[in-house]
Amino acid sequence: MDLEILEIASNTENHKVLKKHTHQSRNKNPLCGDEMEISLMVKDNIVQDMGYQCRSCVYCQASVSLLSRWVMQVPIEKISDFVSKAELFFDENFDQLKKINIKDLKDFKKIMNSKNISRKECLLLPFKTLSKALKL
């Protein structure tokens, strides 16, 4: 296992329960049983706060850790665009992602790449749960 994935997953600043949230969703990966819950505080179509809880593998934990830090103060429209294209990380030609102007694209690319294709569903579970929470 890549030590970088462990390092990213160990950042748990948003692993918390949001008591006051405007959006929430639970999701489960039917292939491996990973479970994810995401709560969001959205005001004026901008994510103000995000909390997550999960019973999952380290790949899923790393993905949700990055995603939870990225969504802060981001408009829903930009989140929708990014989430809808997340599968492109696993395609070597991910130029469409560059067009979104994601500030931490290189951080996502460290874990979401063709080398980790066998863990694709684990890595995408946080994106799918976020999309479900925001009804995108």
Automatic annotation (TrEMBL):
Molecular function terms, GO-annotated: iron ion binding; iron-sulfur cluster binding
Taxonomy, superkingdom: Bacteria
Protein name per its UniProtKB record: Iron-sulfur cluster assembly scaffold protein
Alphabetized SUPFAM superfamilies for the sequence: SufE/NifU
InterPro entries linked: NIF_FeS_clus_asmbl_NifU_N (IPR002871)
Any single biological process term in GO: iron-sulfur cluster assembly
Organism: Candidatus Pelagibacter giovannonii
Domain spans labelled NIF system FeS cluster assembly NifU N-terminal: 4-80
